[in-house]
Amino acid sequence: IVGHEFTHGFDSNGRKYDKNGNLNPWWSLQSEEKFKEKTKCMINQYNSYYWKKAGLNIKGKRTLAENIADNGGLREAFRAYRKWIKEKRQGEEEALLPGIDFTHNQLFFLSYAHVRCNSFKPEAAREQIYTGVHSPSQFRVIGAMSNFEEFRKAFNCPENTTMNRGADSCRIW
């Protein structure tokens, strides 16, 4: 969650504010254009997700800032976790849980997904699509993880499947 919130400082909204929180766009025109070009991939990715519960597709442009934060936050949280193992534990992994047949990295990703567990009634699901700025939880997980190479490696996801977008992966930062 910390990585998610941190990434908001560099999304489609946060980029408009300076280091003191004042409305003062600080990116060069070239940076803005490059950013907009990269966001097209993510908008299209999330537009393609159909939420059966709502009977609607996600609105990739409406949810863009949160999708950027989900993708960047996952990446930064994983990087921080691996750095902690390397620096604070001298590269030694923690003991695995007895009877659990998952690697440390797999457990990291499972815990990330677990935070997003929830349930919606169809009316609430439609309302979220029409007015919400967050993608539905299952697509917050699928979207971010399918774009992240470390997730794909951890679970050996075959290329060009739901959880491995391969060359079609979107990355803003």
UniProtKB/TrEMBL annotation:
GO CC terms in record: plasma membrane
Entries under Gene3D superfamilies matching the protein: Collagenase (Catalytic Domain)
GO biological process entries: protein processing
Highest taxon above the source species: Eukaryota
Entry-linked CDD domains: M13 (cd08662)
Domain called Peptidase M13 C-terminal: residue spans: 1-166
GO molecular function, one term: metalloendopeptidase activity
Pfam families linked: Peptidase_M13 (PF01431)
Entry protein name: Peptidase M13 C-terminal domain-containing protein
Phylogenetic placement of the source organism: Eukaryota, Metazoa, Chordata, Craniata, Vertebrata
